[in-house]
Write a structure and sequence with these properties.
alpha+beta; 61 strands; globular; nine-stranded parallel beta sheet; 18% helix
Length: 1046
């Protein structure tokens, strides 16, 4: 990556302009001054916009300087009261590139008049082209946001990197996922809150490892914005929405349940799935088509045999109350005669290599080119393709693989040296490192605009995998390729909330998990929680068992039916929350602590969340029923309620005192609902006997609501003289109130309620019962609830591996956790290590799926020979001893009388290291063979995750004293004899300033092997190859330690 700037100056280099002095990091971390004058760079220079060219003036002495520049950032108020822009210097402010996060770039660049000064001023330090920004807050400040991130809700102790990454099967310690939100929400000890935005599209490190401190590190220079402190976190997010925009107003059908898998492979199968939903009475609005509907994975085409008539399919689906969403990827097959490729080539729309020729990368169709969405002409070209595509009966579009993901690449994406010829208003001609994080957002924007072109009277629905802060203006999102296990179920709540806290309120996980097979209880529990998320979709990958709501037995099916009926009852409320989010910037789902930001005990709750005034309390542990869970409630009145649907595997629901919750009938799909449907108001009075609520109604699609074609009703209830009056306090919009029955239920406690009914718009009165009557009603309600829970048919807790395809992932791994390490092991498949997390740095060096990769061991030189798939037994364990040594010994039968034994240890006397001692032992080798086994080799095969592939390499000193530095482009390498590492080699991550050191006994290791994969590297240790006997086992002893590097 070529990147040049001395902080405090306006000079900048992007790409490699001809004849310009440039500064770059060489592989040793040193700066090198070079000049260029090639034909390729001349081509690039001629294409750079006039504004960009003006920024390339740079003094050689400034480039050569490695002095550290630091101080307080300068500020100016912008946008509105309480918002400040900070820059390192006036020249940096003048030189800043345009914003891709702000809706209106002028708001970012135009000062406003105010006497207010910022409460917190960031400091900066600029060194070696990197700008380090730090803000410190009072002790006890809680940190949230950072966008799409895995792991805990409260982010103190975490560090992530904004670099959109295809992160299949990510874990709690994965530091870069599919989206980038360089944003942190700080909630102060007193409940006030402040937000911080680093307005850069480049790779940015967000370091929250120091308590109450935010640190951003990204290439110089970029402005930082603070929003607040304001009186509440909600006020901060509303202010943020004034900068980066609110969520698009979704069509109402998109808030129903969505059913998806990779893939429903024919229109016949699609019709079958939809018919089954209706036959079984399970609500659903949307069916999804993954890539297999295409002709050879060519976008904008249909397979003529399996999907011969998409229009006819769409007609049938619409008649049955279903919408259809179809996938579009950015990778366009490089093939003459393919109309998309031909039309794009004709007008020169492809991302280019540094030499000016189109970049070709491997994706699903094979060799592909990629649209350069940074150009308005390319966005218009794509939008026109989308417009024509919609006429096939397409209701919504799914943008996948748009990080952009590229196969057969160590970085999982295109080279950072690729060239985007962007429009001046978004940054001009830049290399890929500048536009990488916004590529997905710009694709989603183009798709959104194409859908609007197709029908101005319909609201587009786009789902995007990759995004940037501001993507919510164009698309919903999901939390990517998660895993079918309890850890991911639990984590899905925090991930949805975190996206909302970063400006994207329309999100949800793949319910049931994408990778692997769910169990009945896991799937049912996940559906219960997922039915309460803003975006509600079930999805799974290829080669897994069916993951429809009826696929796991009658008990699970009934729980899914109850969960989705619950969602459909609440859709009037959920739709209202989206309207408020669209018009004001408030959240749809928010953390429980939003009910009382001053209560520090609520700030780390991860198994509950708010939908407006509704508190959803869920169980995310396999053996913990929701009715046995001790719910942590915010202070004040919280009334429990249900729809006579309570079940041990469904979340518990509470309504906040002072609230009125509107809900409707549990339709099978949105199309069944009518304005004349009965409307129910659930009322929870506050301490003063009052309550209020709001309901938004319109056509559910189109833009009539922007011209007043809607009805926004404010309801209020008040207790006076033992009588509650419910009335309409205010109405907005041009719609007349529908003639419909209004049912009012007043909650009394313990789930008990009294009710009355009348016509909507009329004042209704209901007499409150006496204290004795209330007590009797509450007791009866609790008894009814108890009977319902005791008689509920529980979902099976079977955790056995499926008899069908795929593999069971929901069993709980064994964890060793002590000192510097947290290590997870799955004995039941290969005894593999699936996670190695270094706790002090927050780095997950190894992370894999359960059934493949991670840390494996083989008994032969062949890849995946015996040892990596067998079930291992735990023969010894010392776990959770509170500071004592943690260890686990496993044994797996690898045939022929041989055992592969592995002992994992985090030593008490040196908890900085993680040790593995492995042996191939002869247990039952027959005398007829002379007591010797077949020919075997102990092959240690760990696959480490490269968090920063372009900044990672292997380093060691060979036995002969030669220094080795192996980078990803070197491919596979064997080292043996005098070139063997002299007992130690390390995986270096320059970006983090860390190295994973692997030490081993050179007497046991005969060969070392390095293999670079897509975002991974294998550092293998091989023993000699020979037979073993009881007296002569094969063994390799080695250990891992993380060290800091200069």
């Amino acid at each position: 990556m070529i990147e040049s700037l001395t902080c405090g100056s306006s000079a900048r280099v992007t790409g490699t302009p001809v004849g310009i002095v440039r500064r770059e990091f060489d592989r040793r971390g040193l700066f090198a001054l070079t000049t260029t004058g090639t034909k390729a760079t001349s081509h690039l220079f001629s294409s750079i916009r006039k504004r960009s060219a003006s920024r390339i003036v740079m003094a050689a002495e400034a480039i050569a300087s490695s002095d550290v520049v630091s101080g307080d950032m300068i500020f100016e108020p912008v946008l509105e009261g309480g918002v400040f822009r900070f820059d390192c210097s006036a020249s940096d402010r003048q030189a800043a590139y345009p914003s891709l996060s702000f809706v209106n770039g002028k708001d970012r660049d135009t000062p406003i008049s105010t006497r207010t000064r910022p409460s917190y001023t960031p400091t900066y330090q600029c060194v070696r082209g990197q700008q380090i920004v730090k803000l410190e807050f009072p002790a006890g400040t809680s940190l949230y946001g950072t966008g799409e991130v895995s792991g805990q809700l409260e982010r103190t102790g975490k560090r992530i990197f904004t670099w959109n990454t295809d992160a299949w099967g990510y874990g709690t310690g994965t530091t870069s996922l599919y989206q980038s939100h360089p944003w942190v929400l700080a909630v102060l000890p007193n409940g006030e809150a402040l937000g911080v935005l680093a307005d850069t599209t480049r790779r940015c490190e967000i370091d929250l490892r120091k308590e109450s401190t935010i640190q951003f590190i990204a290439p110089s220079s970029y402005p930082v914005f603070t929003f607040g402190p304001f009186t509440s976190p909600t006020a901060v997010l509303v202010s943020l929405s004034h900068a980066v925009g609110t969520v698009f107003m979704p069509p109402k059908w998109s808030l129903g349940y969505h059913q998806c898998r990779w893939s429903y492979d024919s229109d016949k199968r699609v019709r079958e799935i939809c018919r089954t939903f209706r036959e079984k009475g399970i609500p659903c609005d949307v069916i999804w088509m993954d890539i297999d509907y295409m002709d050879g994975f060519r976008c904008f085409t249909f397979d003529k045999e399996r999907f011969p008539d998409p229009k006819s399919l769409a007609t049938d689906l619409h008649l049955n109350g279903f919408k259809a969403i179809w996938m579009l990827d950015p990778g366009i097959k490089h093939e003459d005669g393919y109309f998309v490729y031909d039309s794009g080539s004709k007008i020169d729309v492809w991302v280019q290599k540094a030499d000016g020729t189109p970049f070709i990368g491997e994706v699903w169709p094979g060799p592909c080119v990629f649209p350069d969405y940074t150009q308005s002409k390319v966005r218009s070209w794509w939008a026109s393709l989308v417009k024509d595509f919609i006429y096939n009966g397409v209701d919504g579009i799914w943008n996948d693989m748009n990080e952009p993901a590229v196969f057969k690449s160590v970085t999982k994406t295109m080279p950072e040296s690729n060239i985007h010829r962007g429009d001046d208003e978004i940054g001009g001609c830049q290399n890929h490192s500048y536009y990488h994080n916004v590529y997905g957002m710009l694709m989603a924007r183009s798709t959104y605009e194409g859908m609007k072109l197709a029908d101005k009277d319909k609201r587009p629905f786009v789902l995007t995998r990759a995004g940037f802060i501001g993507s919510q203006r164009y698309a919903a999102t999901w939390t990517g390729d998660n895993v079918s296990n309890w850890e991911h179920l639990h984590m899905s709540i925090s991930m949805v909330l975190q996206l909302g806290l970063s400006g994207q309120p329309f999100s949800g996980p793949d319910i049931g998990g994408f990778a692997g097979n769910a169990t009945p209880r896991l799937f049912g529990r996940w559906m219960g929680i997922g039915a309460m998320f803003p975006f509600c979709r079930g999805h799974t990958e290829t080669d897994t068992i069916d993951h429809e709501p009826w696929s796991f037995g009658e008990e699970c099916e009934e729980v899914c039916r109850l969960a989705l009926k619950r969602r459909y009852r609440l859709l009037p409320h959920i739709y209202t929350l989206f309207y408020m989010a669209h018009t004001t910037g408030t959240l749809v789902a928010s953390p429980t602590f939003f009910a009382d930001p001053e209560d520090l005990t609520l700030r780390k709750l991860e198994n509950s969340f708010l939908l407006g005034p509704v508190l959803v309390c869920a169980s995310t542990l396999p053996d913990q029923r929701s009715d046995k869970l001790q719910h942590a409630l915010p202070k004040g009145i919280w009334q429990s309620f249900d729809f006579e649907d309570s079940h041990p595997d469904l979340p518990s629901l509470y309504l906040r005192g002072g609230s009125i919750l509107p809900f409707g009938p549990p339709h099978q799909h949105i199309g069944e609902s009518k304005p004349s449907d009965d409307l129910t108001l659930l009322v929870a009075l506050d301490e003063n006997g009052k309550a209020k609520g709001v309901l938004f109604e319109d056509d559910g699609d189109g833009y009539g609501f922007t011209e007043g074609q809607y009805l926004l009703t404010h309801y209020e209830a008040e207790l006076q003289m033992s009588e509650v009056t419910i009335r309409v306090s205010k109405s907005e919009g041009l719609w007349e109130r529908p003639k419909r029955r209004l049912i009012v239920k007043i909650l009394l406690g313990g789930g008990a309620a009294i009710d009355t009914w009348g016509m909507d718009g009329e004042d209704l009165q209901i007499a409150m019962p006496s204290e004795a009557e209330v007590s009797n009603l509450v007791s009866a309600s609790k008894e009814k609830y108890k009977i319902r829970m005791e008689s509920a048919k529980l979902i099976s807790d079977a955790e056995k591996a499926s008899e069908h395809k795929g593999v069971e992932l929901s069993q709980t791994p064994i964890e060793l956790k002590s000192g510097d390490w947290a290590v997870k092991v799955v004995p039941w498949i290969g005894g593999r290590v699936i996670s190695m997390a270094h706790l002090p740095s927050g780095t997950q060096w190894l992370h894999s799926r359960v059934e493949v990769n991670g840390y494996e061991e083989y008994c032969g030189t062949e890849y995946r020979s015996a040892g990596c798939t067998e079930e291992y037994s735990v023969v010894e364990s010392r776990l959770q001893h509170g500071g004592e040594e943690e260890s686990l010994m496993l044994e797996g039968d690898i045939g022929g009388g041989l055992i592969l034994q592995r002992k994992l240890t985090i030593p008490k006397d040196n908890p900085k290291i993680f040790k593995i001692n492995s042996k191939i032992l002869a247990r039952k080798v027959g005398a007829g063979s002379g007591g010797f086994s077949r020919l075997v080799c102990l092959r240690v095969h760990p696959m480490f995750t490269l968090l920063h592939p372009t900044e990672s390499f292997i380093s060691f000193t060979s036995i002969d004293g030669s220094k080795q530095e192996i980078w990803p482009e070197s491919g596979e390498q064997f080292y043996e004899g005098n070139l063997l590492p002299n007992g130690e080699w390390m995986l270096v991550d320059k970006c983090q300033g860390l190295a994973l050191v692997n030490r081993f006994n050179v007497e046991e290791v005969f060969k070392c092997f390095i293999h670079w994969g897509t975002g991974t590297v294998n550092l293998e240790l091989w023993s000699e190859q020979r037979p073993v006997s009881k007296q002569s086992p094969l063994a390799i002893s080695h250990e891992y330690e993380v060290i800091k590097i200069p």
